[in-house]
Write a structure and sequence with these properties.
The longest helix has 16 residues. The chain contains nine helices and 14 strands. Strands 5-4-6-7-8-9-10 form a seven-stranded mixed sheet, with helices on both faces. β6, α8 and β7 form a beta-alpha-beta unit. The protein folds into two domains: 129 residues, Luciferase, domain 3 (Roll); 149 residues, Rossmann fold (3-Layer(aba) Sandwich), CATH 3.40.50.980. It is an alpha/beta fold.
Amino acid sequence: MLVRDQLAKKILDVNSNTFNELALKVFQYQYHHNFLYKRYVDLLGIVPSKIDSIEAIPFLPIQFFKNKVLKTNDWREETIFTSSGTTGSTTSKHYVRSLEFYQQITEKTFHQFYGSVKEYTVLGLLPSYLERQGSSLVYMVDHFIQQSSSPLSGFYLNEYEQLVKTIEQARIAKTPILLIGVTFALLDMAEQYSIDLSDCVVMETGGMKGRRKELIRSEVHRRLSNAFNLPSVHSEYGMTELLSQGYSKGDGIFLPGYTMKIVTREIADPLTLQQANRNGIINIIDLANLDTCSFLATDDLGMVYNNGSFRVAGRLDSSDIRGCNLLIV
């Protein structure tokens, strides 16, 4: 079996006990087979053979997805995920070797937090994402819809009245309901329909996309909770450059999926990681990025807690504004 296939199999079954050792193996594999990452590591003067902890692994700036083709080894992509961007901006491109691998990761990650997606009526309220090509979020939600055993599962643009009717039908069918929506669309729906969704998982993602004034996350959740009688508002953390996701079940505190680990680096020294419970810039280990680069330095400000959970607090002022703006906590 090829080294890549052996690593992919281990990634699908990774857990907290095996994560660090596997991350080190993925680093060595990507260093030796990803020209751009190798060049970056070499320019930093880092000796790969001396990397013996995940804290010592160098993180590649996430901007490389905007102007380079990131691939570990040589292969033909099955698709390219692209970021939405803003008018005139350069969008990120994530070349995907195996959609089946991505599907397996997303499904197992969802199961980690919510149980089998097959049991849910999955409703995707994703205007702006559905109106363009290449969205990884749309692909993920479409996969969830296809896996769902409910014939009521499906996508919606702005058909709020029909969406409300579908929710009522799902209640009659007694299936758990997952409503995952772009933030501005959920707020639009909340202003038009004050309905009780306390028995649903309502998950916001993606921000305002220029459709509404930006709000702090706590205000978004307050409005949605009041309109829909929600005990908590769930959130999804993902981006074009990642093939893994994190989820929050409330209060803006995320837990990374089983193939992810979040650390923070010093604002003044981007090559130095810092301890938990301090504000910094988020670095992500995403083992699902086996075929591109698993070690990414983002532009997101945040804090990691002792239990591995994390909070996102916005974006560095000096970084590019990407289409998937994060709400400021």
